[in-house]
């Protein structure tokens, strides 16, 4: 068995003693639980739509080794190389997102995917974490010197990303990207005038989305008036939590996965609630909270401003995605097609989250100085 001492100067040895191993362990727990839950929830869905029972299971377990490799590989990078990687990824994702608008298949009125044989890619999933790092770089450069208009460049890139997302359209992801970007801008020292202005723009934008996109209006209306109908998945999810109680009905014994179309993706938390109960649900929430809070606690000692902004953006994105998914399952907010990180089935989502977590682990590693080393 290989062991690493603090005197080990190899790449892997230095990584082992500088990476946040508690966060790495927490991510491992999520990945393990995700594998179990996809195994429990997806066969019923596959059977219902005419696929082989373990179709989704096989695909998920194909993605898992890739995701783990991505997390570990990216976590070896220095902040400088994280930044370079994010810039390249961002540029590639912008091109691919434009391609989805031109040649991507239309699914339920939206163009968000590219088809490569049997693999479906959603470029915007990778656009989210890469944009957070690029925006952080621009904000940090503005603070260093006024020679580079980092804030203006960040605003322009934000407008580009939002424009592409709304053209698909994907209003939910637009709100997530906007919230993360605003949080980073606020941490970068956004003047109070701009804070008020952006909040006003956000309110107007939300109202505009309600007025311009019928599917957004429908989801909001169904959330505000559940008695109006059209809440089949939400109602079944709530029944699942009630049936599961504190301890659940037992692994594999739940019934909600046989009737929920998205039991293996958007509503997998309801499957957890029915089969494992409220206690396990609270444990899942606790793991997400631990990753986010521990990440921010490590940033309190960070001297590199770019690292602070980039990691804060990635943590906000990770936590917000978990909150939205769980909130939708518990009928605390309108429905939004967003996966539960590392637990829901999904290739693009799984790999994009692996990129996010790899960059976060790389940025949060203990380093000797404040520079990009």
What would you say this structure looks like, in words?
The protein has one domain (13-363). The relative contact order is 0.16. Helix 3 packs parallel to helix 13, helix 4 packs parallel to helix 6 and helix 6 (150-167) runs antiparallel to helix 7 (171-187). It has helices spanning 11-18, 21-48, 55-75, 79-103, 123-144, 150-167, 171-187, 192-212, 214-224, 232-244, 268-299, 305-329, 347-363, and strands at 114-116, 119-121. It is 69% helix and 2% strand. The model has no long low-confidence stretch (mean pLDDT 89). It contains 13 helices and two strands; from the N terminus they run H-H-H-H-E-E-H-H-H-H-H-H-H-H-H. A two-stranded antiparallel ribbon has the order 1-2. With 373 residues, it is an all-alpha fold.
Which labels suit this protein?
373 residues; mainly alpha; two-stranded antiparallel sheet; 13 helices; globular; FtsW/RodA; cell membrane; transmembrane
Taking the alpha carbons of the first and last residues, their distance comes to 30 Å
Structurally, how many domains make up the residues?
Answer: 1
Largest beta-sheet characterization: 2 strands, antiparallel
Which shape, going by the Cα principal axes?
A: globular
What portion of residues belong to β-strands?
under 5%
Query: How much is the radius of gyration in Å?
Result: 21 Å
The DSSP helix count reads 13
Helical content class: 55-70%
Strand/helix succession? HHHHEEHHHHHHHHH
Kindly name the structural category: mainly alpha
In total, how many beta strands?
2
User: Biggest sheet, strands in spatial order?
Assistant: 1-2
Mean pLDDT: 89
Low-confidence stretches: none
